[in-house]
Every structure is written in structure tokens, then in C-alpha cells.
Amino acid sequence: MIAVGLRRAKLANRRLEVYGLIELNKLNFISDRGSNFVAALRQFTPMYCFAHRLNNILKLSFYQQQKKEKATALALVAASSSLLATRNSDLTRLELEKTSSDSDGFDSDDDIPLNMYLSMSVKRDLKKNADITKKPIGELLHASLDFLRTINNCKSLVKYVKLNGLNKDIQDYGGVCLKQSTTVRWLSLINLLESIAKSYEQTKKVLAGKKQQNKFHIDKQNVQELIQLLKPFKRVITLIQKGCEPSLYMVLICVLKLRKTLRTSESLFKYNRQELDDKKQANQENNRDNRYNTDDLVEYESEGLSFFRTRTVQLLNLMFTLDIRHYTATLLHPRYRKLKTCSNLEIRNCHKYVRQQMALIQVDVDIPKAAIADG
Fold first, then answer.
1. Which InterPro entries match (predicted)?
2. Which pLDDT tens digit goes with each residue over 268-280?
3. What is the Cα–Cα distance from 134 to 154, expressed in whole angstroms?
């Protein structure tokens, strides 16, 4: 793998020379975690795509990560009394990033490198709350399994509606087109759930008219709770995907926002209430139809959703590590340069890094001047 990575790095070097990019060690690379990219860019300490990582976090959170594991999950969710007896599921093999271990070799927090400090903070948080990131599906409570069952039932329902061309009938009753979900599309799961929530009654009517009521086994409250959990991720991914515009400065802001929002059920409910109020106000100002924004929010978090909220935020902390360059990108943006939501240690480390990089730039500028003077 190392040899392959070196060959690909040399190939990338030749390709970039055309654009005058020769000293690749002075560039910052951002890529997904494809094995070929990881191998080729390892020597350049790349940053990895935040949106891809969020997608992986959500797939792992809801046990949707692999075909073999997914089939096992579906079988377990479909079972009844034997679910709790299944203890040795293959789903325990989650590929998470390893975090650095705690170190007592530093006199104070000021001496600790930022990446290590953040890693230690994550480990301290996991000690306070039981680590459920590796909990196998066979050990889940019925309340948690019910949410996985809801997701599977929603996917099956949409597949049936699509295959039988029933979306037109649902729209004729005043609903919206039901949308399918795939594991490779980052926003597809919440889009599927939202379409079912908006067309819940209309879909029931259409299926009843076709005498297919047995296809509809969906708990509306479970759907609404899942939507409320996924809404912050939808907002974040929409902000990050800016097309041709730079969005690296948004990564720090979005990570901190997700951590704050998912910390408690109260903070998650507050976020969804504020978003709903903002959407209603915007629709009123623009004279838009508000009929799909009137669903009551679920105020009290169920035991099953509490598990997935906690699991999701733990996976976020474990699988995505903020790089000092994320802080720097935010610092260099005029609107966010004060880093208000960051700790004093994080701000000092960021300023220190910027000074170091500026010193390196100054050295590169001074060398040609000295060469000319000697000549």
C-alpha cells in the first residue's frame, strides 16, 4: 500500500506541475477517505471532506454501514422476542478512528498540542458518559430497535409506492411525492422521512383505496423524532456544500453547532423550534404555502431516540477531529475572526500556528532577496 501511495503521489506531482504547483508540501489537500487518496496524500497530512465524514457518521449511527452488516441488521430488526438474545452480531466491527491516549508529560494545558488536547477532551467526555459507539445491534432495547424498524418500513413503503406508480395518486390527494433513500446520498434519508411526514394521511388513503393497508406500518411520532434528530445535519451539510465557493471556514462552526445542539434533548428541541419559527416567518413574508410546516414538534424525547442522539454525538466526536487549519480558516474570515465559541487555549494555539506560518512565508521571501544581493 505504501509503494502504491508513492506511485500515485508522483503521478499527482507530474499532473500538478502543469499548473506551476511543484512544492506539494506547501499545499493543503482536502479529499475523501478513498484508499487510493489516503495512500497518495498521506505524506502531505491532508484534511478529509467533512460532508463525507458526516455521511459515514450517520450511517454508522443507524447501523446502515455495510451490505453484509445491513442484511444482519434487517434480520435482527424483523425478529421479535429473539432480538435481545442475539449478542454476537457482526455489527460490532465499526471502523472508527483511534484517538490519542491521555498523557501526563505536560506541565499545563498551554503546553499540549491542540490536536492532542481535543483528543483528550473527547476521551474525558466518553468517561463521563458510557461509550455506546460499539454497542452491537443485538443488545439494543426494544425502544431503540423500533426506530430502526421505522426506517426500514419507510424505505419499504417508498419502494412499493415507486414500483406501483402511486406517487401521482398521493399528489392528487394533496400530498407530496415520496422520495427514496440511498446510503450514498447525504440528505436522502431525511428527505424520505420528511416526504412521508408531509404525505402521511394521503398515503394511508391511497393504500386503503388499493386495499394495501398492510403495507403501512409506520409510527408517525417516530418519523417526526427522527426528522428532528437529522434536521441539524441537513442544515450543516447544506451550508458546507457551497459548490465553487470556499467553505473550509464553516467546518469549525458547524462541528461546534452540532455538538451544542445534540448535547441534550432540550437543546435539540430548541433548535428545531427555532428553525420551524424561522421557516414559518420566511414563508409568510414571501406569501408561500405554510401547510407543510404546521406539524407539532415532539417535545419529549423517547428512550429510543435518546440512544441514537447520544450515539450520534459520540460518533461525531470520535470520527471527526478538528484540525488546526479548520480554526485558522475560521480566524481568517472577517465575520468569525474572534472565534467566540472557542476556548482560550484553542484561540492561543490558532494564533501561534498563524504566526509560525507567516514566519515560514517570510523566510521564503527573504531567500531570493539574499541570493540577489550575493550576486
1. RNaseH-like_sf
2. 999 999 988 888 8
3. 25
Map grid coordinates 501561534 to a residue: 352
Torsion sign across C-alpha atoms 60, 64, 68, 71? positive
Task: Give the span between the Cα atoms of 44 and 32, in whole angstroms.
Answer: 14
Question: Would you mind telling me the total number of residues written for the chain in this entry?
Answer: 375
**What's the sign of the alpha-carbon dihedral 283, 287, 292, 294?**
positive
Q: What span, in angstroms and rounded, lies between the C-alpha atoms of 9 and 23?
A: 12
Q: Provide the grid cell at 315.
A: 460518533
Give the integer Cα–Cα distance in Å for 359 and 357: 5
How far is it, in rounded angstroms, from Cα 303 to Cα 324? 37
351: pLDDT strictly greater than 70: yes
Q: What pLDDT does residue 333 have? A: 94
Nearest one of 316, 244, 248, 256 to 55, comparing CA atoms: 316
d(CA 40, CA 10): 8
Averaged pLDDT score across all residues of the chain = 79
d(CA 204, CA 234): 27
pLDDT at 89 over 50: no
Tell me the residue type at 297. L
Residue 168 burial by Cβ neighbours in a 10 Å radius (0-12, 13-18, 19+) = exposed
The string of pLDDT tens digits covering residues 206-254 is 999 988 888 898 999 999 999 999 999 999 988 888 778 888 999 999 9
Cell of 201: 394521511
Distance (Å, whole) CA 255 – CA 243: 20
C-alpha torsion angle, residues 193, 197, 202, 207 (rounded to 10): 40
Angle value at C-alpha 189, between 74 and 136, nearest 5 degrees: 35
All three cell numbers of 365, joined, read: 521571501
Average pLDDT over residues 188-200: 91
Looking at residue 40, its amino acid is A
**Contact at 8 Å (CB) between 73 and 137?**
yes
Rounded CA gap, 52 and 348, in Å?
A: 29
The C-alpha cell that represents 269 in the structure block: 428541541
Measured CA to CA, the distance from residue 245 to residue 100 in angstroms comes to 33
CB atoms within 10 A of CB 202: 18
